[in-house]
Amino acid sequence: MQQQNHLRTFYTLIVTQVFSLIGSQISSFAISIWVFTQTGNATPLALVSFFFIVPQVLVAGLSGALADRWDRRYVMMLADMGQAAGTVLLLISFASGRFELWHLYAITFMQSLFGVFQGPAFQASVTLLVPDHQRDRANAMQQVTGPLAGIIAPAVAGMIYPLVGVIGAIAIDLTTFLVAVAVIFYSRIPRPPQTADGQAMAGSVWRSMFDGFRYLWQRRVLFWLLVFNSLVNFLVGGVMVLQTPYILARTGSEATLGLLLGIVNTGALSGGIIMSMWGGTRPRIHTIMGGIILASTFLGLAGMAQTPVMLGITLFLFMFVLPFVNAAAMSMLQAKVAPDVQGRVFAALGQMSMLLMPVAFVLAGPLADNVFEPTVGQAGWERVAPLVGDGFGAGIGLMLLICGFGTAFLSLLVYLIPAIRRLEADLPDFQAATPEPVGEPLAGAALAVETDA
């Protein structure tokens, strides 16, 4: 009975997340169109991603320490309140008619600063809400939330944007956030049991900020696998921040952009559904590494796509594979790490994964605007024109091709290392104890799960 209640809580969080993400992606879609049409450059959108990712690198350790030290409901509540405040400030900025790009950068930084506390607390709670044999399915369902919202949001945004504009889109985001808070008000989150690993890592908050790295360093192959993941994110995530300007440049149509974004998210949704039904390979490392190789190959092919149809196919396939990678990786970590230290370990994971992303985001926009796009049609371009074309967007296409195929080759080399393929056999699963009784809902407090980008 208790397990059923835990699963019910998990599914409530997932449904609430989808609802809230729909509102957030409506406003994100509207703001992206507004910024690109006003400036004509990819750099401002890349800088938004930069200011979003920097807090995740700087304070992830603190977020993990608090996730393991405090009631995880309080941690997520703090995160939601800060993000809601940022949405209000953004609404005021646009409504006053005094919006400037630096407002968007500052508010993005603020929201990300609060939001970074949410991820480790929520992921660590999943381990106690969902038994191991259902965890692949649960993690796959988490991969579905963003794409599902991404399918609905562009269609809704395309209909309402001409009517309500950016201000209305942000107001909708705030409304869905408040509704989500009300729904999650009555949720209950289990507390993790105390384990030997947790007792060994007990100490001050300052020391706890680095516990996740120490834990991973003691499991050396896992540590180096996460270093590799950081490099993959640098190569793939960096160029994917150019997705909106790339599609607009290739198609020249905002309507086509909305349609293709819907197709892209359909790919991720389909992959998440199939992964939840299949569950991936055992060992899970085969799903992880094979998926990275396939996804990066499709990304390279997307750089060669020059028509809306080919863009839709290649980006669909790229996003289709990612849920397999992410769900399998999260399930593997949840099985290998003690529950009462998972907040710190997942924070370290996030910090390592995002370590190079700020550099990628700073480089991606200027490289597209000042190097690759201006080179299109110049002397020597005829050598690559058969691959990516010579029209608007071909420069960004070449960036996708280089990063995609380069990542596929690097991933294949890593996959050939025997220690990587034997990781799960060499590192036994952690046998979790029975969680402590579930606490009562917070009186006068609200909890909502948001993973807004």
List the helices and strands and how they pair.
Layout: H1 2-39, H2 43-58, H3 60-69, H4 72-95, H5 101-115, H6 118-129, H7 135-184, H8 196-200, H9 205-208, H10 211-217, H11 220-240, H12 243-251, H13 254-278, H14 285-304, H15 308-336, H16 342-353, H17 357-375, H18 385-388, H19 394-415, H20 418-421, H21 423-426
Which keywords apply here?
about 450 residues, Growth Hormone, Chain: A, 21 helices, disordered C terminus
**Largest sheet geometry:** none
Superfamily at the CATH H level? MFS general substrate transporter like domains
Shape: globular
CATH architecture: Up-down Bundle
Number of helices: 21
Q: Under CATH, the topology is which?
A: Growth Hormone, Chain: A
Average pLDDT reading: 83
**Which percent range describes the beta-strand content?**
under 5%
Helix content: over 70%
Overall domain count:
1
H/E topology pattern: HHHHHHHHHHHHHHHHHHHHH
Cα radius of gyration in angstroms: 21 Å
Unreliable segments (pLDDT under 50, ≥5 consecutive)? Answer: 432-453
What's the β-strand tally? 0
Straight-line N-to-C gap: 36 Å
Would you tell me the structural class of the helices and strands?
Answer: mainly alpha
The CATH class is identified as Mainly Alpha
